[in-house]
């Protein structure tokens, strides 16, 4: 082992993604009207995963469109969280590089756990001030892009986030994949075809340019429950 590889790197949270996907690989319809198409069992699965996470992260469009509050899923899951040694509610991490997020989103009205915002210097000062009134802390990446590695290190060090659940959407997922930060993917494959070349997928954004850059995962669990397939992929190191 080289001396360099013996130096432990700064700790990052374990990042796991959870998404429902249609049989044709979409996570919503092209017009974004349909954004929830999994079964009640899939929703339970989402809360089960949340019950193992210190924090849940979403992109701005997902927060606005789904009007999700990123809560714990109710009393049974609250108890499960406590049993798992976690806080009653997950921390909520919102990604908005330009600060465009709608401050009227439902999430900001629910004050059950801290809201942390990841943004960049692209966000106008006025918006940062407005965000400062609804968020518990704002982490600004210098420059135009979010430095996710640094942001995740900050989440680990400052907010003790050991397990970070990313619930999309496609643009945020893609940035995490490209930065090599995703450890596990949970995908529920739903027996529906949503179609549409502009419909969002599990990883949109810029994507990879070459096969060699593709993040590699291996399927570690595959369970059929009624009409849906619950899959888990782990990153190959
Ligand atoms: N089926 C499922 O499980 C599932 C789960 C989640 C979402 N969805 C669907 O997915 C759709 C939303 O996905 P989406 O890809 O359009 O949006 P998204 O990833 O939720 O949000 C995109 C926005 O988040 C911010 N953002 C994301 N990545 C960033 C980066 N690398 N750097 C800086 N800012 C970043 C930007 O905000 P600014 O514009 O402020 O810069 C960007 O415009 C919705 O239709 C939703 O219903 C489906």
Q: What's the quick description here?
A:
With 237 residues, this protein is α/β, with parallel strands linked by helices. The protein has helices at residues 3-6, 40-50, 60-66, 75-83, 125-134, 148-159, 170-178, and strands spanning 14-22, 55-59, 91-95, 115-120, 137-141, 163-166, 184-190, 217-225, 228-235. A hairpin with a 2-residue loop joins strand 8 and strand 9.
Task: Report what the structure shows.
The protein is an alpha/beta fold. The protein has one domain (17-205, 215-235): Dihydrofolate Reductase, subunit A, CATH 3.40.430. Helices cover 26% and strands 24% of the residues. It has seven helices and nine strands. It has helices at 3-6, 40-50, 60-66, 75-83, 125-134, 148-159, 170-178, and strands at residues 14-22, 55-59, 91-95, 115-120, 137-141, 163-166, 184-190, 217-225, 228-235. Strands 5-4-3-2-6-1-7-9-8 form a nine-stranded mixed beta sheet. The radius of gyration is 18 Å and the shape is globular. The model is unreliable at 1-6 (pLDDT under 50). The chain binds NADP nicotinamide-adenine-dinucleotide phosphate (NAP). NADP nicotinamide-adenine-dinucleotide phosphate binds next to β1, β2, α3 and α7.
């Amino acid at each position: 082992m080289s001396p360099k590889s013996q130096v432990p790197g700064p700790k990052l949270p374990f990042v796991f993604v959870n998404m429902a996907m249609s049989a044709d690989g979409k996570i919503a319809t092209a017009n974004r009207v349909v954004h929830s198409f999994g079964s009640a069992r899939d929703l339970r699965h989402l809360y089960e995963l949340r019950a193992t996470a210190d924090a849940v992260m979403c992109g701005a469009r997902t927060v606005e469109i789904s009007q999700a509050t990123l809560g714990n899923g109710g009393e049974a899951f609250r108890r499960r969280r406590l049993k798992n040694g976690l806080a009653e509610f997950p921390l909520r991490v919102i990604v908005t590089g330009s600060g465009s997020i709608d401050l009227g989103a439902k999430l900001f009205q629910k004050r059950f756990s801290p809201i942390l915002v990841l943004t960049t210097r692209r966000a106008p000062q006025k918006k940062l001030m407005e965000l400062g009134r609804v968020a518990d802390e704002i982490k600004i990446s210098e420059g135009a892009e979010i430095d996710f590695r640094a942001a995740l290190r900050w989440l680990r060090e400052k907010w003790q986030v050991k397990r970070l659940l990313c619930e999309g959407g496609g643009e945020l997922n893609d940035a995490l994949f490209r930065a090599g930060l995703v450890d596990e993917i949970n995908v529920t494959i739903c027996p529906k075809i949503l179609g549409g070349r502009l419909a969002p997928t599990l990883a949109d954004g810029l994507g990879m340019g070459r096969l060699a850059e593709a993040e590699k995962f291996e399927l570690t669990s595959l369970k059929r429950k009624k009409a849906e397939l619950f899959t888990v992929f782990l990153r190959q190191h």
